[in-house]
Amino acid sequence: MSVIGIDKEKCSNCKLCIQECGRGYFYLGEDGQVLFNENLSTCNICGHCIAICGEDAIITKNLDDVETFPGIDSPEKIVESEKLLQLLRAKRSIRRYKNKEVPKELIEKVFEAMRYAPSASNARAWRYIILSDPDKLQKLSDEIVKVNYPYMGFQSAEQALEHLKSIGRNLFYHAPHVIVLYYRVVEKSTVMVGLRANDAGIALTYGMLEAESLGLGTCWIGMVQGAVVANKEILKILGIKGMVLGAFTLGYPAVKYRRTVPRPPLKIKGLDLI
User: Fold this and answer.
1) What gap in Å lies between CA 55 and CA 10, rounded to an integer?
2) C-alpha distance from residue 188 to each of 3, 93, 110, 245, 266 (Å)
3) Among 37, 164, 178, 188, which lies 20 to 30 A Cα-Cα from 22?
4) Are 118 and 20 in a shared domain?
């Protein structure tokens, strides 16, 4: 996948691609025409040259077709600030689900939202697996509890498992689906692990917000990644290899909330200087 040049018949020589490209692929020739530097190899396929070109003059290879829609040049007109803030304030972690599977077409919309999440240097190295088998989810829950029971406030794994059984729940709240984000490569650098973790958090948040707009509920299950670090056998249950950096439940909420929840004010330095 790559950007490979400029269609001279379409190009209006507006120079916006020069201003937008952070890698210096576009430049002015001696005749004042915009040119493409074919000798560079640092493009990260961010797509900004494609997005900003009003003439659709950027030539690509093996990239998906792009599209436009009303409001794309003014995102603030698509969703009003107050409405977006209301959605963010209304979103709750759902821990009670209906015994009802989510249609595939809605799940695909959740993944489509995560597809457009940003990532460091546009690496987009994440992969996903969705689990929907109740027996497999129960087994996965049990194995994770066996690792994390001390953090759950129990003296033993048996005590934790018995407690969950007594209240009729498991680690995934018996949600019909669980989405796990992972990377095939296990990073050695703590800096890279941090970057990948940031990417994962953003991508999963995109998915959870899309789910909210579809009338679905989600809950981030942070114990999944910690358990995988401690017990590699969990990867076998998941059927994957690599580094797990996030997971959330997905299903129809069996509860409705009537108010927002209290949150303490942010501690911000420098705002008073503006």
Assistant:
1) 6
2) 30, 32, 30, 14, 33
3) 188
4) no
